[in-house]
Structure formats: C-alpha cells, structure tokens
Design goal:
The protein is mainly alpha-helical. 81% of the residues lie in helices and 0% in strands. Helix 12 packs antiparallel against helix 18. The radius of gyration is 23 Å and the shape is globular. The two termini are 32 Å apart.
Length: 473
C-alpha cells in the first residue's frame, strides 16, 4: 500500500472539524434547547433524547453494513462523503425547531434527528473507514487518527464559543420569540460546515480509495470480496480486542458527553448572572485541552504504544476532573483543571480510530473478510449508545437535584449540579479503563497482519486473472 501524500497529512481532519462543529450544537445544547428554549416538559425531553438515541444507535450499526455492502463509482468509502452531507443540512435543522403543539414539535424534532443521523452515520463511518484504505503503517494511522481527533477538537473548540453567540445573534434577527429560530439557523450553519469539510476529504484522497474490482461469480476473488451478515458478526464476536475497545469507548464517552452537556446547567446554577460566558469559557478550555492532547497522541504512541497511551490518558483525565469538583466555585480553577484533564483525555481520544482500525485488521487477518465498515460503524455505535445513556444520566440527575428552568437556586441544587458535572463523569471514565486491560493487540503485530492481508489479496487477484486468461484461451 502506498504512503499518504502531503495533502492528506496536512488537511485530513478538516471534515471532522466541520462534523464536530455541527454535532457540538447537539451534544452540548440539544437538551437545554428542549428544556429551556423550546420549553418542552422535562419528561418530554427525556423521551425525545431516549427515543432518538436508540434509533440513532441502530442506524449506526446499519450504516456500517451499508458501507461494507456497497461499492460505488467514486470509491467504496469516498463516495459517501460526496452524497450524504447535502441531505444532512435539511434534516438536522429540523432538530432545532418548534412547530405547533408540544406533541407536533416533538414529532418533527424526532424525525429531523433520526433521518439526519441515519445519513450522517453512513458518511461518518465511511470517513473513519477511509483511514484503513489510505495506509497500513501504524505511525501513519496514528497520525491520521490524531488528525481526526484534532479536527474534532477544533470543531468543538470553535463551536463552544460561537454556538451560544450565533444562537443569540440569529435570534435577534427574528425579534421577540426568535430564540428557537436562533438555534435553527445555527444548526444550518453547523451542517454546512460539515459538508465543506467532508468535501475536502473527498478531494484530497482522490486516487487512494478506488472502487474494488468486480469479480465473476465462482472465482476466488469473488469469494474473498463477498461479505455476508454472518461475516460481519464473526468480525465482532470472534474479535476480543474489538469487544474490549467497544466497551471501553462506550463507557468513557458517557462521562465525556455528560460533562460537555452538564456544563451549561452547572454554569447556570453556579454563575447565574454570567452563565452563557462561563459555559463558553469552560467548553473552550474543555475542547482546547482535547485538541492539545490529540496532537500529542502520536508522540505518546511512539513511546508507550497505543494501548498504554490510552490508559494513561484516561487515568489523568479522571484525576483532574475529580479535583475540579473541589474548586467548583472558582471559574478560573475549573477552567484550568478541565483544560488539563482534557489534555490527558485528548491523548486517549486521539487514538480511538487507531484502536478500531487495528481491530478491523485483526478481524480480516483471522476471517479473511474485510468488514472494516461494519467495525468502524461500531465506533459510531459506541458514541450513539453513550449519548443515549448520557441523556438518561442527565435527565435523571436533573430530576434528583430538583432542577427546572424556573427553579430557585439553592445550596443543595448547586451542590448536586457540581457532583453531576464533575464526579459522575470521572467515575464513568475510570470504569472504562477496566475493559481496555483485555485489549491484547500489539502495534507491531498489527503491521505484520496488514502485510499478510496484502499478500493474500495480491495472490487472490493474480490467481483470478490467471484463471480468466486460461478460460479465454
């Protein structure tokens, strides 16, 4: 496999920046949009977040199967970066609307959420799967994985400050009652940025992800290429490193996304007179820290390896997030501690794609079947499931501490909010380290497996061509 070029090295990750900007509109502000802007009852918000989250999780799995099954003319993975984004723009905006009664609004929001996520899950899975198609060299994969994470962090970094400002600015254009429209327009901008970023990925990877050669039925090449649902399932359940990775990723992301979403509530309770500014400042530090950590992940891998770098990063995040709880009354202290905690988390987060790509290589080496799309779809599955449970954790926590948009701020409410914001996420991330202890893949082994896979494919293609030539004669 040829090495990645300078365009890919420098610009890969821009798609994730745009995608991440768009998704931050949701992950950080969707729940507070439902409860405080659309003014839907807390029970309705819980139902919406759970229902859409479950549908999103299912679609993430289906997306991986679709990517594996299709072989489109612009490339097995690249094609989806071209086709999907325009449709996402329309339906994502519907997520941030309030049409008619509470019931009507809930239906429209759910439909916008489910359809937009189904389409972007396919594009997202294809984008992540593209890493394995671009290079088989571990440090290059770590570089691309770090670029993905860095892009993600940059998108979140800008969104953390700009989304609240954009929502207010757009709301001002519509006068009284324009708060909902403020979020609708902000969602449109976020989705448009995702489209631009994914189109950049599409163009800079030209020549790398070509349509797979079609083979006649009955040839060895056809046998190698054909992937069934059973093959996909074998790629999961006969893959201990993947099971460990999925559980680790799923559990730690509950804590990660819970902290992102609860910052807005924490700021409102602890700093009511400047909550918007505090929310933006904390999320800025949060995402800046993740960005710095992501950029360091490649260097950490060179010294400690993929697995150990991930464990160290998660452990450091747990320690500094928990410390932030004891300084919850100081905005400056919280900002500094959250920044440091996310530098550590960013190191681990920056290696997510590498972990899944290594597991995909292990699967193909063991089974002879390329189920990369389905396996990378499980990365999306982890995100979706974590957001579902994150929604339940937050809405349950809000109910326990007695929060409502009009509730009076008391010491009890403030104390509960700080526990939910700092201690609960730290616990989830700490528990997530346990499954990773069962991840037994060594980076050097993975590279050797990739080499063996390449030789098998070359031999299969040469045999198929020889058979075709012999049949023609």
């Amino acid at each position: 496999m040829k090495r990645i070029n300078s365009k890919i090295k420098n610009f890969f990750g821009l798609g994730d920046a745009g995608f991440s900007f768009m998704t931050t509109v949701e992950t950080s502000f969707f729940l507070i949009f439902l409860t405080d802007v659309a003014n839907l009852p807390l029970a309705w918000a819980a139902i919406i977040s759970t229902l859409t989250g479950v549908c999103d999780t299912v679609s993430a799995i289906v997306a991986g199967a679709i990517v594996d099954k299709c072989n489109l003319k612009h490339g097995k993975y690249r094609s989806w970066l071209l086709y999907g984004p325009p449709f996402v723009i329309v339906f994502f905006a519907l997520q941030f609307t309030k049409v008619g009664t509470d019931l009507t609004a809930a239906i429209v929001i759910c439909l916008g959420f489910i359809i937009s996520h189904f389409i972007w899950n396919i594009a997202w899975t294809a984008n992540r799967s593209l890493v394995g198609a671009l290079t088989d060299e571990p440090t290059e994969r770590a570089h691309l994985s770090g670029r993905i994470s860095a892009g993600s962090s940059i998108g979140k970094l800008f969104a953390s400050k700009l989304v609240p400002l954009m929502a207010v600015a757009f709301a001002g254009l519509f006068g009284g009652g324009g708060a909902v429209w403020g979020y609708t327009c902000t969602a449109l901008v976020g989705a448009a940025l995702m489209l631009v970023g994914y189109y950049v990925h599409y163009f800079i990877t030209n020549g790398y992800d070509l349509p797979e050669p079609k083979a006649e039925k009955g040839t060895e090449l056809a046998t190698v290429e054909k992937v069934s649902v059973l093959d996909m399932l074998k790629g999961v359940f006969a893959n201990p490193p993947l099971v460990a990775t999925v559980f680790c990723d799923f559990i730690r992301l509950i804590g990660y996304y819970a902290l992102m979403a609860f910052v807005a509530y924490y700021s409102k309770v602890m700093f009511p007179e400047s909550s918007a500014a505090v929310t933006g400042n904390v999320l800025l530090a949060f995402n800046l820290g993740t960005l710095v950590g992501s950029l360091l992940s490649k260097h950490a891998v060179a010294k400690f390896g993929t697995k150990m770098s991930t464990i160290i990063g998660m452990a450091g995040c747990v320690v500094f997030t928990a410390i932030a709880y004891f300084f919850a009354g100081s905005q400056i202290a919280v900002i500094v501690l959250i920044f440091v905690s996310q530098v550590f988390f960013g190191v681990a987060y920056g290696l997510t794609t590498s972990l899944y790509t290594n597991c995909a290589t292990y699967s193909e080496y063991k089974t002879g079947k390329n189920t990369k799309g389905f396996i990378m779809g499980l990365c999306s599955f982890s995100i979706k499931m974590s957001i579902v449970l994150r929604g339940l954790v937050i809405t349950t926590g809000l109910g326990i501490i007695g929060y409502s948009a009009e509730a009076a701020i008391t010491d009890s409410l403030a104390g509960g909010a700080t526990i939910m914001c700092f201690i609960v996420p730290a616990i989830f991330i700490a528990v997530a380290i346990i499954p990773l202890l069962f991840y037994k893949l060594d980076d050097k082994e993975v590279m050797e497996m990739d080499g063996e896979i390449a030789l098998r494919k070359k031999a299969a293609i040469e045999k198929a061509e020889a058979d075709d030539q012999a049949a023609a004669e």
